[in-house]
């Protein structure tokens, strides 16, 4: 059992490392200012779009027949529902995992209908105007259609970038129906749906679904990890290690968060930072990432999903080996570690590269030459021994002296 004193030393070193990677107060204040400003501006953009929809609805009602317009408005524009439903913090901002040099800021903007390119351009065009009404700071707004997102960049130091991804609940994968129901469907209906989606110019479905997954991850993190002692500190340290070591990069993000939570939460007592870091490292070194291992289950998916499915065998082996050779891996002190004997090739390489004195000395043999009667160090006893006796017996009888 390790002493409590050694645990205290580990905690001190871990907290010193954490202090070196934790963002400065000025950076955290700048992050809070940027995120809060953009959230308020998006609220004003939503109000502005709702005003446009109401005004357009009134003009359509005055121009069209009364019996047709009432049904159309009820179907297309439900009362009390905004085009933009809300904005939520996700990623490092929501989880509190910001570190120096890793300040990825993300928001998810939920829409009532499937987000389109037209909606993206409309929001990105009006967002700078709403930001100017809230602050005098300069921000640059860019629309990024391939990522289904809008980027807001600060113009002064520290330079930060906030990514706003558009998504909607209607972008979720539809569950497959039974074979009988699928047999009754016509190919014409599928074609009409595809043509309708293309006509609406919907944004990338995978990007929108990834944004929905990030919402689930943030909600799970706040419920399971935020109040878990030492877990957030350990996650910041591992994120820094993933940024510095290329071999650990595939484990960065959601897989690492699941591993740390499971390793720390399964302990029967609260862990300090040093013990928690060691426990996570031992868990990775045990081989859970290798093929044939248990894997890591994704708790935010309905279907059984392994978050390590995209990890190649070579990457898993490299991460496992790195964890095994880490100073944090052995549970026992250094003096209890058993060193494996050298292999035959290592012994031959050592002997071939070593310059051995052929003369030797009285107490050691050169070792390279074969033992013969001429070069052997076995010397004849100065006192003759009986055939059935030994030197030890001769000494006891007084026939030989101590050497």
Short descriptors:
14 helices, 403 residues, alpha+beta, 5-stranded mixed β-sheet
**Low-confidence regions:** 64-79, 176-181, 330-343, 353-396
Distance between the termini: 46 Å
**Radius of gyration from the CA trace?**
35 Å
Could you tell me the mean pLDDT?
A: 76
Structural class: alpha+beta
Annotation, overall tally of beta strands: 5
**Treating each run of at least 4 consecutive H or I residues as one helix, how many helices?**
14
- The share of residues in helices is 40-55%
* Overall 3D form: globular
Q: Major β-sheet, in short? A: 5 strands, mixed
What's the order of the H and E elements? Answer: HHHEHEHEEEHHHHHHHHH
Model description:
- With 403 residues, the chain is an alpha+beta fold.
- The chain is built from 14 helices and 5 strands.
- The protein has helices at 4-21, 25-63, 66-76, 91-95, 117-132, 179-183, 187-200, 205-224, 231-244, 254-265, 273-285, 313-324, 344-352, 391-397, and strands at residues 84-90, 105-111, 139-144, 149-154, 161-167.
- It has a 5-stranded mixed sheet, sandwiched between helices.
- The chain is globular, with a radius of gyration of 35 Å.
- The chain starts with a helix and ends in a 6-residue tail after the last helix.
């Amino acid at each position: 059992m390790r002493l409590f004193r050694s645990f205290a030393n580990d905690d001190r070193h871990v907290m010193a490392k954490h202090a070196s990677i934790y963002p400065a107060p000025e950076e955290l204040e700048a992050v809070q200012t940027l995120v809060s400003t953009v959230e308020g501006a998006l609220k004003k953009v939503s109000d502005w779009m709702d005003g446009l929809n109401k005004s357009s609805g009134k003009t359509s009602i005055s121009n069209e027949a009364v019996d047709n317009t009432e049904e159309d408005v009820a179907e297309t524009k439900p009362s009390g529902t905004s085009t933009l439903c809300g904005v939520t913090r996700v990623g490092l901002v929501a989880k509190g995992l910001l570190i120096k040099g890793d300040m990825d800021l993300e928001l998810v903007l939920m829409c009532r209908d499937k987000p389109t390119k037209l909606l993206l351009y409309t929001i990105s065009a009006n967002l700078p105007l709403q930001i100017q009404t809230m602050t005098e700071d300069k921000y640059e707004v860019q629309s990024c259609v391939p990522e289904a997102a809008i980027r807001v960049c600060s113009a002064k130091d520290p330079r930060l970038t906030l990514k706003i991804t558009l998504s909607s609940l209607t972008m979720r994968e539809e569950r497959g129906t039974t074979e009988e129901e699928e047999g009754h469907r016509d190919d014409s209906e599928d074609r009409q749906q595809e043509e309708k989606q293309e006509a609406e110019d919907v944004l990338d479905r995978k990007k929108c679904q990834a944004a929905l997954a990030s919402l689930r991850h943030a909600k799970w993190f706040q419920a399971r990890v935020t109040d878990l002692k030492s877990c957030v500190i350990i996650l910041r340290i591992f994120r820094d290690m993933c940024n510095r070591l290329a071999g650990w990069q595939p484990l960065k993000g959601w897989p690492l968060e699941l591993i740390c939570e499971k390793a720390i939460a399964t302990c029967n007592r609260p862990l300090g930072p040093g013990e928690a870091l060691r426990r996570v490292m031992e868990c990775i070194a045990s081989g859970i990432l290798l093929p044939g291992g248990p894997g890591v289950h994704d708790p935010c998916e309905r279907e059984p999903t392994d978050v390590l499915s995209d990890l190649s065998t070579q990457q898993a082996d490299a991460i496992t080996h790195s964890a095994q050779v880490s100073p944090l891996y052995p549970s026992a002190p250094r003096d209890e570690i058993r060193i494996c004997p050298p292999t035959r090739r290592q012994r031959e390489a050592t002997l071939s590269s070593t310059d051995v004195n052929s003369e030797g000395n009285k107490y050691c043999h050169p070792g390279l030459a074969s033992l013969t009667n001429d070069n052997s160090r076995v010397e004849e006893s100065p006192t003759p021994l009986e055939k059935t006796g030994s030197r030890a017996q001769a000494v006891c009888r007084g026939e030989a002296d101590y050497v």
